[in-house]
């Protein structure tokens, strides 16, 4: 079984690399997350109901007032249109009455955008796999504030159009097509996460009997990426700002490693994490922490060892005291501080020490 899943891992982890893209800077300044935050501010009396629905100085002022009111928000990175989702979420967690403004409370948790090329049975299989992933993370007490759009099709042209139409960040047509081609072309099943969206592509000849395993794994993996985004903020990151990416998102091996650890745990809840560790160790003749440290930026995925390194690192971190919850602690801290300090506080050792013992 492990061997079987292991062969799936390569294609899975290669295809759903978190997207360091979505170039253009602007997110609609009145996105559902900003709206949620403003409604919460009005509810708390920190904003006038007549205030502009656009994000602006009045939003920053309200955030300051909230930080003073709720200890739990302490240290949260300054609010922006990108991380308004994290503020909206944490406010709801701090005060139950503010949860009512979450987009997932005022609207659906998942919005399915299915191609007509998928029959109703296939659509049900996808919904079931999404709920499988959702239920797994719910067992870890994860609550999402933002609605996730689930876009699925076997038509790449249609997927590109849906990506453009549903993205919170503007994407050019050429960019959308290139992303879809990279993630989907030539695969039986492909998929990726973009802010607020999970995009799934099926080859017309996809064997739907595999969905019980590989669709569930894929969606648990992508859900992990979406949770990281909602906990820390949606961000359009261009290739040019790699340091910003690192500071706010963390190293790519960890983004992928956490998602891989979660996908295995969701599918095989009773397999001890050490079993996975020995499988990954036996597959590659020797790992080096020095190399892991270099698998940091978005170009890391071009290294053929990247999936194995990310998977081993993720499982090693999941084998520490807090188990898979360690990643959730890490993301919560990452919403507040740089990744090194979040890592050290969440996992109880510094990245340098982890690289040192990684082998
Ligand atoms: Zn991924």
Describe the structure.
- The chain is α/β, with parallel strands linked by helices and 359 residues long.
- Helix content is 54%, strand content 6%.
- The protein has 17 helices and four strands.
- The chain has helices at residues 2-15, 32-43, 57-69, 84-94, 103-106, 120-138, 156-166, 173-184, 214-232, 242-249, 252-267, 273-283, 289-294, 306-318, 325-334, 339-347, 351-357; strands at residues 110-114, 148-153, 189-194, 197-202.
- Strands 1-2-4-3 form a four-stranded mixed β-sheet, sandwiched between helices.
- α9 (214-232) packs across α11 (252-267).
- Mean pLDDT is 90; it is low at 10-26.
- The structure holds zinc ion.
- The site of zinc ion has 7 residues, from α9 and α11.
Radius of gyration: 20 Å
Cα distance, first to last residue?
24 Å
Structural class: alpha/beta
How much β-strand is present in the residues?
5-15%
Features:
359 residues; four-stranded mixed sheet; 54% helix; 17 helices; 6% strand; binds zinc ion
Task: Describe the SSE topology.
Elements: H1 2-15, H2 32-43, H3 57-69, H4 84-94, H5 103-106, E1 110-114, H6 120-138, E2 148-153, H7 156-166, H8 173-184, E3 189-194, E4 197-202, H9 214-232, H10 242-249, H11 252-267, H12 273-283, H13 289-294, H14 306-318, H15 325-334, H16 339-347, H17 351-357
Zinc ion binds at residues 16-18, 221, 225, 256, 259.
């Amino acid at each position: 079984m492990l061997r079987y899943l292991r062969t799936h891992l390569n294609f899975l982890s290669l295809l759903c690399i978190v997207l360091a893209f979505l170039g253009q800077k602007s997110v609609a300044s009145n996105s559902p997350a900003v709206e949620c935050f403003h409604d919460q501010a009005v509810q708390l009396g920190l904003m006038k109901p007549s205030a502009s629905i656009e994000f602006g100085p009045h939003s920053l002022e309200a955030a300051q007032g909230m930080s003073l009111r709720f200890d739990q928000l302490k240290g949260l990175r300054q609010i922006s249109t990108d991380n308004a989702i994290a503020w909206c979420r944490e406010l709801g967690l701090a005060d139950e009455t503010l949860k009512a403004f979450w987009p997932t409370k005022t609207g659906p948790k998942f919005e399915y955008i299915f191609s007509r090329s998928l029959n109703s049975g296939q659509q049900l299989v996808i919904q079931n796999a999404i709920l499988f992933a959702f239920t797994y993370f719910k067992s870890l007490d994860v609550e999402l504030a933002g609605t996730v759009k689930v876009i699925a099709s076997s038509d790449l042209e249609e997927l590109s159009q849906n990506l453009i139409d549903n993205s919170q960040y503007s994407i050019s047509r050429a960019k959308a097509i290139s992303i879809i081609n990279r993630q989907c072309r030539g695969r039986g099943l492909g998929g990726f996460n973009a802010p607020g969206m999970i995009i799934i592509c099926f080859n017309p000849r996809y064997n739907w009997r595999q969905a019980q395993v590989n669709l569930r794994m894929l969606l648990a993996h992508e859900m992990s990426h979406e949770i990281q985004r909602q906990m820390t903020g949606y961000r359009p990151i261009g290739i040019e700002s790699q340091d910003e990416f690192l500071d706010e998102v963390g190293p790519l091996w960890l983004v992928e490693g956490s998602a891989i650890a979660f996908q295995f745990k969701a599918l095989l809840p009773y397999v001890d994490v050490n079993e996975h560790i020995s499988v990954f160790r036996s597959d590659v003749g020797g790992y080096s922490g020095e190399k892991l440290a270099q698998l940091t930026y978005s170009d890391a995925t071009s290294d053929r060892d990247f999936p194995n390194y990310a998977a081993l690192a993720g499982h090693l971190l999941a084998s520490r005291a807090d188990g898979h919850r360690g990643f959730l602690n890490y993301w919560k801290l990452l919403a507040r501080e740089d990744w090194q300090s979040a890592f050290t506080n969440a996992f109880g050792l510094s990245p340098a020490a982890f690289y040192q013992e990684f082998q």
